[in-house]
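Workshop exercise sheet. Pairs work together: one partner reads the sequence aloud, the other fills in the structure field after running the prediction. Swap roles for the next sheet.
Pair: D.N. / O.F.
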Amino acid sequence: MGELTFPQTLPTLGTVGVSFEPEEVAFLSPEAGGTIGAVTAGFPRWVLRASLGQMTFAQADIWRAWLAVQRGPQRPFFAYDMDRQHPRFHGKSRPYQPAPATWSQAIRPDGLAVLTLGGLLAGQVVSIGDYVGLIWSGGKLALTRAVETRGADGSGSVSVAVEPPIPPVVPADAAATLRRAGCLMRLVPGETKLGEAGITHFSAGTTIVAVQDLIR
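Structure field:
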């Protein structure tokens, strides 16, 4: 008999809409001379919002069971952007190396983060919107996303601007991945709900809302 293991992975069946974006708490900081500054409180966290369409009872049972074992926000789970599971350029059977051998991050004077990946295939492309995930210590996860398109040089190295910057809690020996890159998340109470059951099916209206749990 199979056993449930944690963290679970977010199901994808029945999803008709998804938003997967980094959100940060920022405040305007007006100065005496009239200049408007800005202050960020804490590190940006990824927020998932998914809406589900009409489902069969069998599909709804999977979601009901998954939501039940999550116990609201008590258990973290693994989630990724369902619309970008692979690098965009390589999504149509173009070969690519999903596990960079090396990575490093540099912060420019203007604050932009530039991620350098090594050990890729020559000419491999990292496109705008592609994700880079990092894993360390047996399951701690961080996630960033490319904001420009760059191709790897002949030695398989590429430098690309990303947002948000990789947090300083990520160790240098963390492993990088370009395939189904994701993070640990927890459900947001009060915003996650299952749709109503009809006579022959579950109606549309199920909403899943979750926020990144950046475990240090």
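Discussion prompt: The domain at 86-179 is CATH 2.40.30 (Elongation Factor Tu (Ef-tu); domain 3). What would you look at next?
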